[in-house]
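User: My collaborator sent over this chain with a note saying "see what the structure looks like." That's all I know about it. Can you take a look?
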Amino acid sequence: MVIEILDPIYVKSKLDQLDISLTSLRDAIRGAGARTLTDLYDQLASIYGRLDIALSALRDALRGVDNRTLTDLYNIINSVYGRLDVALSSRASESTLSALSGKFPSATALSDTIANPTTTIIGVANLGWDGTYWRRLAADTSSRLKVNVEVTANPPNLDVALSTIRDRLPTSLTGAGNFKIAILEDTVGLLKDTKIPNPIGILTGVDVGGSSTNAVAVIDQNLPSRMPYLIENIAVSTTEGSTSIAAPGAKILKIKNKGDVEVLIGINGAVPATNPLKIKPRCLLLIPHKGITQVNYKTATGSSTIDIEYYN
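Assistant: Without extra context I'll predict from the sequence alone. Here is the result:
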């Protein structure tokens, strides 16, 4: 009888190669999460549940209603490539490009008198906004901007017929109305330069023709030629005073206020209680008149000094 056994040394050398225990091998295979074959099965079952169509259905959906394949796509792409794989000269030549170039005009300088172009041209269009649309700005033949004025300024106080003004201007100081004008006839050659005098006297709120009114008087600067009468340093206070002028009365009266308070004046009578003629401090008042025989004067407060100068 023959008995064959393994060499104990050989067996030991093989066992020495098993450097870990079976439990260590188990834990290494299961990993840190201690996963088992059951976990793997459940995961695969979950993936399979998400594949809710057969592969044939997936294939048909990808190929579409006309049953296109990757071969069809390849052939179409290859056809496009074949159309591009030609020399550029077969697609465009100098003759075809020159024909295109002929559609554009030669360069030209813009000028004021340039005619409307019949070919392509580049310019600048100046536009103005009218509140709704943009519109071209126009110019005349002298290169000036043309503007249409919609409203011409007309102050309302000028919007009256000239005849209305004419009818309200009488020809003498004693005429009717609140506005009176004196017209001097050139009977003795006193008015110079085609009857256009130099100074113009404007009176407001004075007694003209027996009533307080407004008046415009025209006086030649050389009239009269004789020296005036002068009464100087007349004291004026709140008590009314007066100075008489001999007949036929003053035709031109000049009153100078030399003080620092306002002086109230009455012509041919007492100083009016309302709307009297006033001479401001350090001012002079010139009054043309048909005949002033008395000048009354006083102050509202304080005192002043006046000079009276007149021609008769």
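A starting point for your reply to your collaborator: The first helix runs from residue 8 to 16.
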